[in-house]
Amino acid sequence: MHILRRPRRLRTSAAVRALVEETSVSVNDLILPVFVVEGQNVKREVASMPGVYRHSLDNLLDEIGQCQDLGIKAFDLFPGLDESKKDKYASESWREGSMYLEAIHAVKSKYPDVVVMTDVAMDPYSSDGHDGYVENGEILNDETLEYLGKMGIAQAQAGADILGPSDMMDGRVGYLREKLDDAGFSKVAIMSYTAKYASALYSPFRDALESAPKFGDKKTYQMNPANIKEALIEAELDYAEGADYLMVKPAMLYLDIIKMLNDNFALPIAAYNISGEYSMIKAAAQKGWIDGDRVMLETLTSIKRAGAKIILTYFAKEFAQIQQQR
Ligand code: PBG
Fold it and tell me: Do the beta carbons of residue 146 and residue 110 sit within 8 Å?
C-alpha cells in the first residue's frame, strides 16, 4: 500500500499538533460580562447560570482584581435594578450618583488599566422591560435614541471606555457617535451589537437582571434567526455610522454570521457567547453528560476560528484559571 499524502503525519504528537494549530484563544481576546447590584457584600448566584454571580460594588471590585491577576483585561458591566428604580424613560440610567454609574467610576478609578465596557439599552431600567421607549404597546425608534444618548453620555462621563449599544434601534450608532463627539468624548469607542438576533437563549440573562419584557417579545427590533442578509445591512450601517467594533450575538449558533462579517469588514469582530449558551454547557456538565472544560475550550475556539477576534463570555475567568494551570 502506498499512500502519498498522509494528513495524520501532522497529528502524530502534541508538539506537532501545536506547531500546526491555526487558532488559539488567549485571555487577551476575552471580555467578561459582570452583573452589579445595589448593596454591600452581596454575592448572589444566578440560579440559571451556575458559577455566575450578581455582585455589589465592593465585591465586584475584588472580583475584578482577581480576574485582572489572571490576565483578563476587559469587563462588560450590567446593572441589576430594583423594580422601584424603573420607569418608562429609563431615567435611572443617567441619574447622577446611580449605582451603575458609580460602579463604572469606581472600577476605572481602582483599575485604570482595565477596559470597561457598558451596556446601552433601556431594558434593565425600563418598567416595560423593553430595550426601547414604549408607547401604546409599540417600541418607538427615534424617541428611544434620545434616552440612549443621555445614557451613553452619562456612562462616558463615569469613565466607560467602550459603549455597547445592545438595543437594535435604527440609527443609534451614528446618534451616539455624534453625541459623544459633541460632548468631548471622541476617545470613547462604540462596540455595536450589529447583528443581534431575537434568540431564545437570553432567558438566563433576563433572570439575572429581572429584565424580561413585561409584554410581547423583542422581534420588532432584534433580528430574525433565519436571516443572513440583514446582518450585512446592519454591518454596513454600523460601519458608516462610526462603530469601532462589530458584534454578533449569540455566538455558537451564528458562526456563519461571524464569518461573513469578518470576511467583509476590516473592523475587529466580536461575538457574544451569551447566557443560554453558557447555561446549556454548565447544565450538561453538572449532569456529567459532557466534559464542561473541554466543551468550553472547543466552543471558544470555534467562535474564534469563525472569525471573532473578541469573545464576550461568562467563561472568561474559568478559561483564565485553566490556562494558568497549564
Ligand atoms: C439587553 C441585553 C441582553 C443581553 C445583553 N444586553 C438581553 C436581551 O436582549 O434581552 C443578553 C446577554 C446574554 O444573554 O448573555 N439589552
Answer: no
At CB < 8 A and 24+ separation, what contacts does 279-282 make? 279/48, 279/49, 279/50, 279/204, 280/201, 282/49, 282/50, 282/51
Q: Is the distance from the beta carbon of residue 93 to the nearest atom of ligand 1 less than 6 Å?
A: no
Strand, helix or coil for residue 143: helix
State the distance from the centre of ligand 1 to the C-alpha of 1, rounded, in angstroms.
57
Query: Residues 318, 51: contact at Cβ < 8 Å?
Result: yes
> Which numbered atom of ligand 1 lies nearest the CA of 119?
6
Could you tell me which of 205, 126, 115, 119 has the C-alpha nearest to residue 154? 119
Chain centroid to CA 186: how far?
22
Q: Is 161 in the pocket of ligand 1 (CB under 6 A)?
A: no
249 is catalytic: yes
For ligand 1, pick from 76, 81, 166 the residue to mutate: most ligand atoms within 8 Å of CB: 166
Query: Distance between CA atoms of 92 and 96, rounded to whole angstroms?
Result: 8
Look up residue 14 and give its three cell numbers: 502534541
pTM summary value: 0.97
196 is catalytic: yes
User: How is residue 91 written as a grid cell?
Assistant: 431615567
The pLDDT of residue 139: 97
From 85, 86, 196, 282, the catalytic residue? 196
Pair 50, 318: CB distance under 8 Å: no
CA atoms within 13 A on the CB side of 58: 6
pLDDT band at 14 (very low <50, low <70, confident <90, very high): very high
